[in-house]
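User: structure tokens for this one?
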Amino acid sequence: AFMVAGFRAEEKDRPDPLFCDPLAAKLAGEQGRKILATVPKNFVGAWSVIIRTVIIDDYIRQAIADGVDTILNLGAGFDTRPYRMDLPKSLRWIEVDYPHVIELKETRLAGDEPRCRLDRVKLDLTDRVTRQKFFAEISATAKKILVITEGVVPYLTDADVSDLANDLRQMEKVRFWVVDYFSPEAIRYGKKMRARFMRNAPFQFVPEDWFGFFEGRGWCAREIRYIADEADRLGRPLPISLALKVWVKLAGAF
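Assistant:
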């Protein structure tokens, strides 16, 4: 969370920022700065976080235009969208994360005002009984819900993701779910990077058939946006050498 907030904080200092997150540096703090000092300049993980942020921002705008009145951000970490995005005041935004994450976030953002109705809930997402009770309460008061699990699902086990998918499917008011997809190639490519920077947070959710996994639990992909394609569209291509780009294209062809 500190590293991701640090990446978002650096974006606003670019001459061509794709978004501006003025609170990210406050949340990243000294720990985030120390982590970023160890990260290579053209670190692909930083690039992917920025593009992913833009994609999800766009999904949120689409969902609101489609009538969503409640956004449920599970594993919210140091996300600041309720503060930095242009949102309806009537929108209800609910952030869920571990108690210590919520407490730190509330302390560091104590003097800042969100642009919509913001609630924070202290909850371990793997506590299924408490989670189901919480989901029932939210569903009873909402009309149309968008669920976000940005950067969360890969760190859960297959069983945890299966339970979460089933529980969300049982929520009548949930209409959309934004969830990360990693291809087998992306997982292999990122293995060394994660071993270096995220030793204490390994990927656990790596199903052989990602789409089939969710379809078997009642979820079908309505729209897919691949980070590399979106990055090219946004004028922020993958930060690797030309030789490596050629190698990636050739590898993909075969």
